[in-house]
Write a structure and sequence with these properties.
6-stranded mixed beta sheet, globular, Hypothetical Protein Aq_1857, Chain: A, 3-stranded mixed beta sheet
């Protein structure tokens, strides 16, 4: 199960309200190879595709493809707005190591 916090939902609603190009799309969260630790997250507004996991709340949607959902089991998607910056943050209990810059991660084989 993937959790999307109230803060992330509020931010998504604000983004969709302020950007006509995002209407009718969901925030796609995906995992791809890259970064110094081997894997990294990506996000973009996109149309739903067959096989996507759909998380819908309060008129907005988060989309996760089947491949990425395996890496995001039990993860939490949040939005933070603090002194060190604002942005979506993924807390993933399956990550065994992340790089020093915090943009890439590694998972144990058992987590997948």
């Amino acid at each position: 199960m993937i959790t999307v916090t109230d803060s992330a939902i509020r931010q998504l609603r604000s983004l969709v309200a302020d950007n006509a190009g995002y209407r009718g799309k969901g925030l796609r969260i995906f995992v791809e190879t890259g970064g110094c630790a081997g894997m990294q997250y990506g996000m973009q507004f996109d149309h739903a595709k067959e096989g996507d996991l759909h998380i819908q709340r309060e008129g907005v949607e988060v989309l996760i493809d089947e491949y990425s959902s395996e890496f995001l089991k039990d993860a939490t998607i949040d939005f933070t707005d603090g002194l060190t910056g604002a942005g979506f943050k993924i807390t993933n209990p399956n990550v065994t190591r992340s790089c020093g810059c915090g943009s890439s991660f590694e998972m144990s084989r058992e987590s997948r």
